[in-house]
Design brief:
Keywords: Signal
CATH class: Mainly Beta
Largest sheet: 7 strands, antiparallel
Number of strands: 10
Order of helices and strands: HEEEEEEEEEE
Helix content: 10-25%
Organism: Pseudoalteromonas fenneropenaei
Low-confidence stretches: 3-18
Shape: rod-shaped
CATH architecture: Sandwich
Protein name: Spore coat protein U domain-containing protein
Length: 167
């Protein structure tokens, strides 16, 4: 019986070895494995620490006023493209019976006098942070209300939406 078990064991071991790998006389001493993956270019944004401003000065002084900072990060190592659209077509609109309007211009960093009344505006050089820690670059956003000091009473507002994409 011992002879039968030894023969069965040797036969099983030989079958297992040949089934696991077929090594030929031309096989080498190394194996290579190639693999790759892709990370698409992308940018991310947030509206900084303050994105809701109340108390704008709407008089004849037409002061340039901060409305917040745009924080941008891209994985491309380049600046971002940002597109700006106004909910009210580039106007501050009042909550009064006539929905009175005050036009304004937008400043994006060093670029000033942008008129959103003609539609959206694309800024092709918005600073963007890079790196695997997610540090952003901040761009100041400001508006200049074009009030003449004789506008109708009411609370005036608008919302600007910014969409960011890789350059």
């Amino acid at each position: 019986m011992n002879t039968l078990l030894k023969t069965l064991f040797v036969a099983t071991a030989f079958t297992s070895l040949t089934a696991a790998a077929n090594v030929s006389t031309s096989s080498g001493t190394e194996a290579k494995f190639s693999f790759e993956g892709t990370i698409d270019p992308m940018c991310k944004t947030s509206s900084g620490t303050s994105n809701s401003v109340t108390g704008l000065i709407l008089d004849a002084s037409q002061q340039v006023q901060d409305i917040g900072t745009l924080d941008v990060w891209c994985n491309t190592g380049e600046n971002a493209i940002t597109e700006y659209t106004s909910l009210n077509g580039g106007y501050l609109v009042a909550d009064n019976a006539t929905n009175s309007k005050i036009a304004y211009t937008l400043n994006i960093g060093d670029t000033s006098g942008i008129n959103l009344q003609t539609g959206s505006y694309t800024h092709t050089a918005t600073a963007a942070g890079t790196g695997n820690s997610g540090e952003t670059s901040a761009t100041a956003l400001k508006i200049k209300p074009l009030s003449n000091g004789l506008d109708d009473a009411g609370t005036y507002s608008d919302t600007i939406t910014v969409t960011v994409s890789p350059n």
